[in-house]
Amino acid sequence: MSRFPHLSETFILREMLEMERLGWDVKLFPLMLQQQAVVHDEAKRWIPQAQAQPFISPHVALSSLQRLAKQPLKTGGIVAKTVAESANSPSELVRKLALIPKAITLAKHMQEQQIAHIHCHYATYPAFAAWIINRLTGIPYSFTVHGHDIFVNRAMLPTKARGASAIIAIAEFHREFLVEKLGEWVRDRIHIVHCGIRPERYQPQPKPAGERFEILTTGSLQDYKGHPFLIQACSFLRDRGVNFRCRIIGGGEDKPMLEQLIAEKQLTGMVELLGPQPETAVRELLATADCYVQASIITPAGKMEGVPVSLMEALACELPVVASRMSGIPELVRPGETGYLVPPANAAALADQLLYVRDNPEEAARYAARGRELVQSDFNLVTCVEQLSETLLAVNPALQRPIQRNA
């Protein structure tokens, strides 16, 4: 993956843990090892094991020179193809060229450790590094696509897709998007494997009756999460005399802007920014909510959600959910069945739907119960990772079926 530990990427952490439980010997190679103030408990033991390399060091320089001397044509070919396919974006090209020595060093360590398969999350730099390692060592690779890595940044995507043993898409929407952008040839390489959660960790909780309508959302404070539209919707609810509180879990670069917007809309005390929270705290907060919202948007650059794991967590808690109709979200939040959808970037429609949920609790509860059933059947981490495991076994004959460990 690009970075580790990364608070919002619980889906990667959970997948690693479940693959390990299935018996796989999992090694962790993040492109960057980062410092975070809040770290999930389950991520802490992985930090000392993470095999990150600096962008430049005597060891990285020596590994690159040795590889160049040993495989001059392949190494030169990697650089030439990278330049040819990324030249239209100078900043992208610079980042890729800076990553090549690191990827060469990772290739050396993976060969020494007899790594049999590389699986990475995101079709951007992780898949680029895997492509380089594959070209130099022959180690097969696969990658999971999520959102911005195909919706926005598609530099060298055809090359990375052709080199991969398998492409994992988290939703049907993603498969059709890739087929549309790359061509029909890619369809057979794509396997649908949902991200998943352990539903038993997100149990429905009885809520004490209260006059205040509790709204909750989880997501990094970035533009594509649509938080300004949720705040605007809250101002509409306030103007209608609704007694509510909206809490936003997450941290990010948009925090100052959102704080200012809350103040401008005179929503202080009604809309709260809770900052980044570990998984245990998120579970506790979900138990206090009446409705979960995912107000995601499509940015001008085309960035958008995939299928937010936070929606799975909310539905597993049997919370009514209101989300934007976009990307793969309708495959989880199904109108008239598991939740409610509204057009993205439409604060008025979002406010109307929130008011409807508040005023129709019995219907909302029925949908939420069906949502939990759907998560249990189609977005269960155990089932999803078993599908991933079987896919990797099918596309890489060198892999041996592991002996499952105890749960």
UniProtKB/TrEMBL annotation:
InterPro entries: Glyco_trans_1, Glyco_trans_4-like_N, Glycosyltransferase_grp1
Sequence ranges assigned to domain Glycosyl transferase family in this UniProt record: 203-373
SUPFAM superfamilies from the UniProt entry: UDP-Glycosyltransferase/glycogen phosphorylase (SSF53756)
Record domain Glycosyltransferase subfamily 4-like N-terminal: where: 98-201
A Pfam family the protein falls into: Glyco_transf_4
A single MF term (Gene Ontology): glycosyltransferase activity
Superkingdom of origin: Bacteria
UniProt protein name: Colanic acid biosynthesis glycosyltransferase WcaL
Lineage, highest ranks first: Bacteria, Bacillati, Chloroflexota, Chloroflexia, Herpetosiphonales
